[in-house]
Structure formats: C-alpha cells, structure tokens
Fold this sequence. Notes:
The structure holds two protein chains of two kinds.
Chain A: H1 6-9, H2 33-36, H3 45-49, E1 57-62, E2 66-71, E3 79-82, H4 132-151, E4 159-164, H5 170-184, E5 188-193, H6 194-200, E6 207-212, E7 217-223, E8 226-233, H7 237-245, H8 256-266, E9 282-287, E10 290-295, H9 296-307, H10 324-333, H11 337-344, E11 347-350, H12 359-374, H13 411-416, H14 439-448, H15 465-474, E12 481-484, H16 485-498
Helix pairs in contact in A: 4-5, 5-16, 6-15, 7-8, 7-9, 10-12
Chain B: E1 9-12, H1 15-18, H2 23-31, H3 55-60, E2 61-63, E3 68-70, E4 75-77, E5 82-90, E6 97-98, H4 100-106, E7 115-116, E8 125-128, E9 145-148, H5 169-191, H6 201-217, H7 228-251, H8 265-276, H9 303-315, H10 324-329, E10 345-346, E11 350-357, E12 363-367, E13 375-378, E14 387-392, H11 413-422, E15 432-439, E16 446-451, E17 463-466, E18 470-473, H12 479-484, H13 488-494, E19 522-523, E20 527-535, H14 545-548, E21 549-563, H15 569-574, E22 576-591
Antiparallel strand pairs in B: 1-2, 1-22, 3-4, 5-6, 5-11, 7-10, 8-9, 11-12, 12-13, 14-15, 15-20, 16-18, 16-21, 17-20, 19-20, 21-22
Amino acid sequence: MTSITPSDGRRITVNRSRPSAVSAHATSPHTPLSRSVSGSLYNSPTATAFRVDDENHLVIELGARSIRVGFAGESRPRCHLYYSPDQLRRIGDYRQYAPDYDARSRKRKRGEEHWARDGYELWRPDLRDTDLSFVGERLERLLREVEATYLMLDSRARKVSLVAGAQLPRPLLEVALAGLFGVLQTPTVTLFPASIMAVVGAGLRAALVVDIGWAETVVSAVYEYREVATGRTVRAGRALTWAMSKILDDDEELTVEDAEDILIRSGWCLSDSTPTGMEKEMVTIEIGEYSYEISRKELAEPIEQVFFAQDSKTGHSDDHDKSLAAVAYDVLLHLPLDVRKLCISRIIITGGPSSIPGLKSRLLQELNSFINAYGWNPVRNYGSVYRTASKPDTIPTQASTQITIPLEPTKITESTTKPSPELPVPAVPAHLAPQEPDFVRAKSASRVGPSPISGVVRGVHSLGAWTGASLLASLRTRGLAEIERDKFLAGGLTGLLNVKQPAGKQGVGERRSWSLAAWT
Amino acid sequence: MAQNPLPYTYYSCPCVNTSAPVPILAANRKHSREQPPTDTTEFDNEEQTFDSRSPRANLSLVPLEHLLWCTECHQMRCARCVLEEVQCWYCPACLFEVPSSTVRSEGNRCTRSCYNCPICTSPLTINPMEDPRQEDKPEHATGPFIMMCPWCNWSSLDLGIKLEKGTNVTAQLAKIRNGRKAGKIQDAEVTSPTQEQPLSPLAIQHSSIDDAEAEATSPRPDMLSTDHDELFTRLRNFYQQQIVESSEASMFGPSFSSTDGFSSPSAISRLLNIYTGKKTKRTKPVPMREALSPSEGLHIHSPADDTDSLTCLSTTPWPDTTTTAQRALQPGDHAPPFTSDLWPIATLLRTKRSKRCRACRTLLARPEARMNYRWRIRTLALNHMPKLTLLPLATTTTSSGGMPTLGPDLGTPAHIAQRASLSAPLRTGQTHTYLLTTANPLEDVLSVTLATPPTTPGRVGTRVTILCPQFSVGKNSDVWDEALGAQPAAASKRRSGMPSGMPTVGEDGAQARVAEAGKVWASGRNWTSVVVEVVPGMLPEDASEEEADLEIAVFVRIEYETDAAGEEKAVAATAKEKREEAFWCVLGVGTIQSTFA
Lengths: 520, 597
C-alpha cells in the first residue's frame, strides 16, 4: 500500500485528454485492473485484452435546470448547459442575434406559479400537466446540440452512464432513455443515482447527502452505497431565484437571468463564519443600465427565507414548511443508530445553490443546534408531564467512544419508575459506567482497519455527482441498472421489467434479470 | 417588436409522428391532452390541425432551406431524422484542420494559439509588449507577449500573464497555470508537514482521528491543495488501490467467479494450489474502506473556507464578479466567482459532417474533406419540394399588378413595395388579401391541394380563406421555353402538360380585378398564385406577443406523375409512377394591432 505523496499526486495536466486505460498504483504484481472488473461479455481472457470500449464512454447528468455531459475518466464535464427559452427557437430564427434584440422586453406570465416555467426547466416534478413528448423532443434537440458543439464524437458512443435522481418519475426516465438511445445511438445506458454518485465523489461509503436542486431539495441518507432514507422539500433553487427576483422591488419581479445573476454574484448566507460587519456593507448592483444600492443583509435575506424557513411558523408538520436543516435532522432521526452515527459526520451538501458562500457552514451549524436542542428524541412535547423541551442535562463526553450525542431520553424512566427494593442498586448507573473492553471489536478493528469517525457533525465536500459517476465509470464498475437498447426499444421500461427469460436459454454473460435498482 | 423578417414559410417535417421509438411514448402522443398529434401521413384524423403556437411545433418547424431530401424515401429530412458522421475537425479561428487522434488526446479545443476573451468572447490578439513604435517590424518582435482583447481591452496582464513566445500559446498557458497551482501547494507545504511514509492501518487510525479532531477544533490550511482536478486524481488513485486490494484478497478465496481468466500470475498460483492440494488459508476479502485523509481525496468542510470566500466577496465590487454567461463559457464547468480568476478560453473546434437518412442510410450530404465550402453530395429539399411564399396583394401599386413573367423574383420594385407593406400591422375585422405563390422545382406538373382551418387556433381566432384551394403548377421546364415565347399567356397555353381547365391570366386588367373564388390569380411557367383572404380576430387585452403574431398553418398535398424509379430509360418513358406528398406549412402573415394599445 502506498500513500500518495504530494510529488506523486502533483502531476497536473491540462486535463483535456481522455484517459483511456487505468493505471493502478499497487506495490505487488497483480492482474491488470482492467480485466478483473471488466464485464463478462467476452469470457475469454484474450478477448478482454483487445477491448477498447472505454472510448466514448459518456457520462450525462440530467437535471431539471441544467445538463452536464462529458467523458468518463475526466474530472470535469465537457459542457454544463442551462436550459433557456432561446433553445426552443425554431431553426433559422436568428432574432436573438439581432443588435436590438432584448430578452428582457419579452412579456411573461407573472407570479410564482409561472416563475421560470417557460423554457428554463426541462420538467416539473408534477407531471400531470406536462407534455412528455415535448420534453422528449426538447431533450433530443439539446443532446444533438451538445454532441455537435462539445463532444464531436468520431464514432458512436459505446456506453452512456446516466446520472439522475432516484426520485425521477418513471415516465420522465423513459423519455430520457428514449432520447439517449435515439440521438446517441448507444447500445447500453447505465443508470446511476445522483445521491450515491455524490457520495462516491467524496470518497465515502456512507453519508447524508443534501442535494439542493432546482425544483426540490432531496436529503438522502446513504449507507454502504445504498439510499436508506430520504426527505424532500420544495425549498430549492426555483424558490430561491423567485425570492431573489423580488429583492429590488416587491411588486416588480426581475427576469430569471437577472435574478440568477444577482444570486451567483452577490448571494451569501449568514453563519458563524461571517466576517464581522459584513451585514452592514452596502453594495451597488448593476442590472442593464440601472444600478441599485442595496445592503448585504438584504442580499442574504432570500436565502434565510427560503432555505431556513424564516417566514414559516413553527409547528407546521409539512416538509415544505421546514428549513433544510430541519428536514436533514428528520432524516437523521429516522435512521437506525449505526447508520446515523456514520451519516452525521459525513454530511455532503451539493447541488447548484450549495456554492453560495456561507451556506454549508450555516446548514451544519443549524443541524448541530437541532441536535443539541432535541437530542435524538422524536417527541418534542410530552404534554402535561414536561412542559419544557426534553433537553438532556448532561452530555457524556468521552473521547474514547467518540459518541457525543445522547441516544436515548433518560429522564422519563428515571422519574416515573422507582427501582424495586429487592434488587441491589448499583453504585453507578449502567449508562454512566465505563465501557467494558470489547475484544471482538478490537480484533475486527485490527483486521478491518480503523473504526470510522462517527458521531460528530462534520461536513465533507464532494466533487459532485457527475464527477463521481465519471470516477465510477472509469473504474469500469457495472451499474445495477443497465438498459440495453434493443430491449428498451421493444418494450419500454414496463416491457423491460416484465421480461421473463426461460431458464437455460440465456447466452453466456447475458443478464439474468432486469432491475431498475433505485428507480423501481 | 422583434419578428422574423417577413415573409417566412416554415415546413413541418413529418418525422415528428414517426420517430417515437418507444411504444409507450407513441401511446402518450396519441392521448396527449395538450397537443393533439398532427398526423400528416394518413389523412384519417382530419379534425386535428397543426397548431403553430404550441411549443412542440417550434421544434419541428424548419425553413425549406435547411431541409435535406432523401432520394430513396422521397421525403424531406430535418436535423432529427438524419444521422451525422464527423468528416473532419477544424478550428474556426485559424482554419487549421485537426486530426482525429489529436481531438481524442487533446480535447475539443484548438491547441494552437486561438483564444477568446473570457469577458466578452471576442478573439484575442497576441501582441508584443514593446512600445508601439517598433510595430513596423512585427516579425522581429521579441517577447514578452501579451494577449489582448480588441473589443473590451482585457489583457492577459490582468492575470499577470506574459508569454515568452508569440506562438504555441496553449502550452505556455498550461505551464503557467500548473506552475501557479504547484506554487500554492508549496506554500501550504511550508506551513504543515506532509505524510510521506506509507502508513500501516493502525497509523492511519490514529492519524485520521487526529486529523479529524484537529480539523474539527482548529481549522488550519489543508496540507494538500483542494483543487478539483487534484482531488479527482487522488480519489481515483485511492479507488484503484482499494479495488486492487480487495480483488487481490479475493483471489485466494473459494470463488472462481472472478472474471479474470488464467493469464495472471496469481491465477496460475491459485490453480497450482488446487492441484497440489496445499491448503491456503482462506482469507475473507477486505471490504473497501472510505477515504480517510486528504491524500486520499477526502476534503473536509471547514468554516474557515466560508470565511475566506465571504471576505473575498465583501471586498470585491460588483463589476469584478463573474456573470452567469462568463461562467458558462469557462470550459469544464469551472465557475470562478471573480473576474480575476477568469482564464482565456481556447476556441472550440468545429466539425464538417456528412449526413445520412435515418431510415435508409442514404447519404444526403457529404462535404469535401479539404478546407473549403464545397460539397460532394448535397440533396436539398429546395430542389424537390414546392416552395410556398405569402405576399400581400399589392392593391396600391400603380405598376402592372400581376406577377412578373419569370416567376416570383422578389427583387423587382413592385415586390419591394409589397415587402414594405408587410410590416404594416393588421387591423382587427378588416379583410386583408394575400397572394400565396407555389413554385415548382420539379420537372413534372404538380397538382396541389391546400387546406387550412377556417379560423386559427387559440384565442384570437383569425378567419382565413384560401379562394382557390385546388390548382396545378406547371413543370420546371427550360427557362428559354418561356423567355422565347411571345407572351406568357401564350406560353402557358402552349404547355402540353397543362390541364385544360387551368385559367390563364394576362398582365392587363390585373389591377382592376377582384379576386374570385375558385380561380387562380396568376400563373407562370412553374408557379401559380392564389388569393388568401385574412380577417384578423380580436386580440385579448392580456395577449402575449406570440398571440399577436399571425401565422397560418396550411396543409399542402401534392400529387404528380413522374418517371418510374426503375433506372432503365426505355421503361421509364412509358411507365409513369404516381407520387403523393403531404405536409404542414406555417406561413407568417404579420402582427395584429392591439386595439387596446
């Protein structure tokens, strides 16, 4: 086992090349990695040596607001396109290039319901009023544009990995797959869930992923590369840009472009790590020919309102009324103890608005204060028994166990039940007694390695879902949900799932059963 | 308002209805609530008409000039019913061709000296830094060089970049950039010691806990750079190592199912072990662990990072922050927040592509490989489909009101006058008359049937009447046939293929004429004009601009008899094949004037 010294890892390249084969760092002679993990399509060892099928392995991250496309094994996508109404123009309509053309003057439907609806998003989570064929045709056009402008493939893409949220509705998934098979003519598409890819992109196996997307924020707890719990709220990018569009004037909303511009150029979030005096500063914002004087505090206001629910009253139980930290806390609360202690010290905040400076610190800080205030007690109010919040009085801090979070509410049992006089009362209550040495655990620790850090609130940066998928794809990992073109075109997704192959009739290396993994 | 230059005609490619590859999607299209399917190939659902305002229509409407023609399928082919193959790559700035191996290894951007300004995207020039007095001898200019934007005056000095040579800028820039990254790492190394020794698992345990504690309590600068690409490299190395370790352990395990054949030394030793009967100790595969230290790609969040970026934000004025457009232009999803971090953008390559029909793989267009604009093969729909043009009927022009003899040439003064009147807004309730001219590029006589819904869909409800929806258009015969004839009327009479019922129109008397239902307005060698009456409807008060634009959807059906597809000319002379095509067209008429304005 080698550690990668800085000199070793510092081979910085321009990073525009497509790395083809992987070169493993290992001390002992071993089988080349490319063979040991390669698919079982060709079972003869010589055949695998001649395969060059990682050429043109595409990784596509499909979001509601933007799309990332690139080659597997690269650290960055080749292109990151945001959807805009200009992409919906007719061919041969060059009005947008005219010198007197002004996108701002376009009349739009106003109001939050219509905010950024026409052209800025590919779909809404509510598909009831969505014309799916329109979404499909639009996606096909986008993919054609991406292929022609950024990818410029000399041959057809052999493999495509699609990164999408596990919450993606099935009809949309079908439309997306149809677009990929139609435009890129690829034989297989592998599905990767976005939350797990974010975990891979952070180098972890378990984490709490807070993915702040466009239409909704998805908080998912991942344990051993599996999603075990999720929470969702509409407090996400769309709501944030809408709040940002009202920042200059309550009655007059800005255009989507302007609102996003203000957000990324000057949006910030209050937290413990805010430099002193920053709130009182004044900023001059220029939009078009106009300039506005506005205080930093006002610029942080939409984020407070939308992400931290400053506007909603406490006591609401709907997920959409809770702040992001509260949703994350709820997800953690519903996790089993072992999963929770791992997830809590691996919190990944990702998605578009997560790059707002201060947001990550603030979220972690809020989550910490939730845990300090409530512990892990799902009951906030015990009625007449305890009017005050059941806040544990002492938190045992033991550096050896690393678990600093009280795991059970202890007060009630102590106060309501009296120890029976027959039994001898121990001098020290069991939960305060020092931990007895656990030989089994010590033995397994020496074999498996160190026990992972757990129990403290800790944020981990991820390189993002696209990069995670690019990593996985370059390691030739097989996805759980791999969809073949012919079978998909024959029956669609429903057809895929209903196919029952007769036993003994399948070819060598053919997949036995179909699964959509997280998407079923 | 911005509007496409009138007149315009869009053709709807019928591939919309046939290209649904998935049955369920096709079913969706059948039962779509918002947009009824526009079935053009079969005429079974006549009630459902084309709605040019639906968002889907925008994706399927193409100007005739952009359409290709498949000679095998006898159908138009738009961008989505062709398959493309890259012929060659070239840089649009320096026009050098790039071989495919370079594209594969170096990426999709020019590797020479072509760069664009990161602020305003105009091409950068590379100038020597010497004073301008020596400009008269540019070939003797010696360094250092800088990159300048001629439009916004950005220069590479803003980044502190000076180039030694004026050529091969890409390599020099990469060197500078890597040097800066390395410099940052070295700075960090000075402050904190690095782990150089390979660590035993136990050591990792201690160090990682120490690290975590240290980072949780007192944030300090990371000893390794947290650059995205750096982290990626480290993470990949880490994963590769983990995979190797776990697979090595499993090789001696009982499972034979690993897919590595017998070509590796370990596999052979495993086989030998089986035959010699030696029992190796079966070790369980060590599960992959997570990254534990920054050298393995772990990047822990520290509040100090946020403090730093917030301090930067508060000290940077608004113009020095990057806009969304500038961020989007930076290659590789690299979004620096401040303009001081923007890097010159290498020019994206372009491709020349050949196009094939998606249905029958016939080559439709194939450019020449050399750097010129010629095509080897290009079959345009323009040469195979009738061209429809809508123009206002010039009632005010005092010159001869009829059409010029040589077909609809838009350059004549009469038509310039007509084009001027196109921009005049349409008034609600007033009858406007237009001439719809159909020009025939084929060498066969076309019989054309036009159909349009009596009122346009949507809230406005403009009434549209085509006065003569059935007519024929003469064949595209030799131009001299007509030019040498004495009179156009006589020429058209002499045409053999013309049906006898075809009304012929002379030039005289056209001005005082009133358009009659069922009669062709004018016709020439290969064109025929009919009158369309348009009565714009009432514009609602809250009408959008799209609603104010009046477009007419016309269903065009053409029939003609042509030589049979069999190539033998002897047979072709006698055997005629009847062909039929049908498609929707959208004609731009003008803007309805709002009565509320």
